[in-house]
Write a structure and sequence with these properties.
This protein has about 325 residues and is mainly alpha-helical. The chain contains 13 helices and five strands. The protein has a three-stranded parallel beta sheet. A two-stranded parallel ribbon has the order 4-5. The protein binds tryptophan.
Length: about 325
């Protein structure tokens, strides 16, 4: 029996936030020992909204370097760039024919992004969940670690897989979402009832993984707290303070309760400084390592080439099975 398979991806668009770090990247680390992991830079998803080409290319490499800097071991898992494995687009085309327009129109993220990018509601934006289904199903993944906002896409992936299997016979593993608890809950520093987002327009709302210490400290100093002066973990009543406690706990390895005790009786000012410092201390070595990897172009290029090759081998097998099932001629 082989290990179970895990699949996940991040888009190389926008700056990653500490929410992405705690929520996805760090959780992936714990999986690489136990599972056969595939982690992709989802640049094909990224172009469903407008991207500056040079920036997209640069961010793709930055993201790969970041994964490695955070401790993703390219020997243990398959780290690759989505567009380097052609089967993603090929399988997405086939899956399009078992997916209904109505289902895609109902997707929450599609509706949100259509509003946000009203001048660019392109077919790719609508098809985004089908491409994501193709990503996951190509590798016969059992588990898909994602944030809360992506669970609907994993649900539709399950529907598509089951539908395909029913129509053409057992082909795909039906995946399950692994909902990431902590990172899914890191909120904006300015509007703590909202998720911290890499595309927030308010530069003080999100802490980016590329922020230097000074910027991090400034953002935490300006973080919105709640009325009163108690440092207590009570998300409904005190969303701002609770969010800061969650961040502190995530970056120190403590629980929110332990953090609460530590700051009992202290003032908001001192508390915010301590949270900022915990974050800056953790990010500094990661940033240095990422910069080092980015300078080593030959190494990074090699990692991504062998990642793409490994992904390709699995993807090709699945696609060939799909083509056989649906009656595509594949030569004699
Ligand atoms: N849509 C995901 C996001 O924006 C990224 C993604 C693309 C993904 N393909 C995936 C996540 C497959 C999990 C599995 O967060």
């Amino acid at each position: 029996m082989g290990k179970g398979t895990v699949y996940s991806a991040i888009q190389p668009s926008g700056n990653l936030t500490i929410g992405n770090y705690v929520g996805s990247i760090r959780n992936w680390l714990t999986m690489q020992a136990e599972y056969d992991c595939f982690f992709a830079m989802a640049n094909m998803h990224a172009i469903t909204v407008r991207q500056e080409p040079a920036e997209l290319r640069r961010r793709t490499l930055e993201l790969a370097a970041l994964y490695i800097a955070c401790g993703i071991d390219p020997e243990k898992c398959t780290l690759y760039v989505q567009s380097q494995v052609p089967q993603h687009a090929e399988l997405a085309w086939v899956l399009n024919t078992v997916t209904y327009v109505g289902e895609m129109e109902r997707m929450t993220q599609f509706k949100d992004k259509s509003q946000k990018h009203a001048d660019n509601i392109n077919m790719g934006l609508m098809d985004y969940p089908v491409l994501m289904a193709a990503d996951i199903l190509l590798y016969q993944a059992e588990f898909v670690p994602v944030g809360q906002d992506q669970t609907q896409h994993v649900e539709i992936t399950r529907d598509i897989a089951v539908r395909f299997n029913n129509r053409f016979g057992e082909t795909f593993t039906v995946p399950k979402a692994l909902i990431l608890k902590q990172g899914a809950k890191i909120a904006s520093l300015q509007e703590p009832t909202k998720k911290m987002s890499k595309s927030d327009e308010n530069p003080n709302a999100s802490v980016y993984l590329t922020d230097d210490r000074e910027t991090i400290m400034r953002k935490f100093k300006r973080a919105v707290t709640d009325s009163g002066n108690e440092i207590r973990f009570a998300p409904d009543e005190k969303p701002g303070v609770s969010n800061l406690l969650t961040i502190y706990a995530s970056f120190t390895g403590k629980t929110a309760e332990e953090a609460e005790k530590e700051f009992a009786g202290k003032g908001y000012g001192e508390f915010k400084l301590a949270v900022g410092e915990a974050v800056a201390d953790k990010l500094a070595p990661v940033q240095a390592e990422q910069a080092r990897i980015l300078r080593d172009k030959a190494y990074l290029g090699g990692v991504l080439a062998s990642g793409a090759e490994r992904a390709y081998k699995t993807a090709r097998k699945t696609l060939s099975k799909v083509y056989r099932k649906i009656g595509f001629y594949q030569g004699e």
